[in-house]
Amino acid sequence: MFELLREWIDRYFSDPQFVILSFLIVLGFVFIFWLGDMLIPVFASIVIAYLLDGMVVALQRWRTPRMVSVVVVFLLFMTCLLALIIVLLPKFSRQVGQLLQELPTMLATGQKELMLLPQRYPDLISEIQIKQFLNFLNSEFTSLLQRLLSSTVASVRGLISVLVYLVLVPFLVFFFLKDKTKITDWLTSFLPDNRKLTTDVWQEVNQQIGNYIRGKLWELLIIWAVSWVTFQLLGLQFSMLLSFFVGLSVLVPYIGVTVMFLPVMLIAYFQWGWSSDFAYTIIAYTVIQLLDGNLLAPLLLSEVVNLHPVAIIVAVLLFGGLWGIWGLFFAIPLATLVHAVIKAWFDTRATAKSSGKVADSNG
After folding, report:
1. Chain centre distance of CA 305
2. Phi/psi of residue 155, each to 5°?
3. Which residue has the higher pLDDT, 179 or 199?
4. CA-CA distances (angstroms) from residue 337 to 43, 117, 300?
5. pLDDT exceeding 70 applies to what percent of the chain?
């Protein structure tokens, strides 16, 4: 057994470049896992700067100086951020307040409907089962309210944190854009000279993840806008809030769309009941998701992150379990990193074997 293990280690870890790459990946995962909560503003700034850098590079192609491009893109980012805070945030908070006010009425209506099920389907469900289910929901709802009340105690500290982030994140974004070359040169100065495999993996991951994140951002904005216009035309309550989460659902493939179907269906049912308006809402949501999955996503993400659906679902479950909501959002980029490492490793070994065969034949 130990002989087999030693042979496996000698076979796959004899390449120093692969050892360096493995060490960097493990170090990065450990660093994020242990210090992720404290460095959330830094990670958020890196992601935003990564997205904005594409616009900076595009302006540079038009022979615009780097510093001028950074200032223009940063001012555009700050304008969008202020519009989000001033225009959209009050609408979100107002609709959240309305939802909390109407939630008890919705729960009472749902309870009445559930109590009618034993009369309609006596062979499938009993009144005792319904009461047990309602008791479970009541206990969960009570614990949720308790958590919300306890969180209000720390609301002042949370507000201060948000204000600090609103100042700190744009500050970091600007300097990440401005000093991108200096920061990358400083980080690479700590790496060994023999890092060809790491460089190859980074180039592929950078291209794949960059295209994926930008494509997903456009997909999110388009689905958000289309859903909001559709819900507004249908007269659905909480249209801004629901459409925002429908847009966010595209970041979690397969699972997000399925999860968001439930709140859209429940809000439509509590507003209209079993009616034609309810049916139109469900049909409209289904059409939006079908157009997204079969037209918009392939158009924006063609030949990007070519992962099997099973691999995507496993990545979502794995990284979501490790890092919660952030793990769900970044599951696909992290899966892309793993895929690029495996692909580069096998390509390197195939090249080494072919070189060895050529050397033997020449010898």
Report:
1. 14
2. -65, -35
3. 179
4. 17, 49, 20
5. 71
Surface-to-core class of residue 49, CB atoms within 10 Å of its CB (0-12 exposed, 13-18 middle, 19+ buried): buried
Torsion of CA 123, 129, 130, 131, to 10 degrees: 140
DSSP 190: T
- What pTM does this model have? 0.71
Query: What number of residues does the chain have?
Result: 363
What digits encode the pLDDT tens for the residues 206-217? 777 777 777 788
pLDDT value, residue 153:
46
Question: What's the CA gap between 221 and 229, in Å, rounded?
Answer: 12
Region of residue 238 (phi > 0: left; psi between -120 and 50: alpha; otherwise: beta): left
Instruction: State the Rg of the chain over Cα.
Output: 26
Q: Give yes or no for a contact between 312 and 254, defined as CB atoms under 8 angstroms apart.
A: yes
Q: pLDDT: is 261 or 29 the higher one?
A: 261
Phi-psi region of 305 (alpha: psi -120 to 50; beta: other; left: phi over 0): left
% of the chain surpassing 90 pLDDT: 8
Burial grade of 223 (CB within 10 A; 0-12, 13-18, 19 or more):
buried
Compute CA 263 distance to the chain's CA centroid, rounded to the nearest angstrom.
19
Give start and end residues of each alpha helix (H) in 36-154.
Answer: 40-61, 66-83, 89-115, 117-120, 127-153
Query: Taking all residues of the chain, what is their mean pLDDT, rounded to a whole number?
Result: 76
Output the six-digit token pair for 87: 């225009």
Q: Which long-range contacts (CB under 8 A, 24 or more apart) does 254-261 make?
A: 254/309, 254/312, 254/313, 254/316, 255/313, 255/316, 257/289, 257/293, 261/285
Q: What is the DSSP string of 213-230?
A: HHHHHHHHHHHHHHHHHH
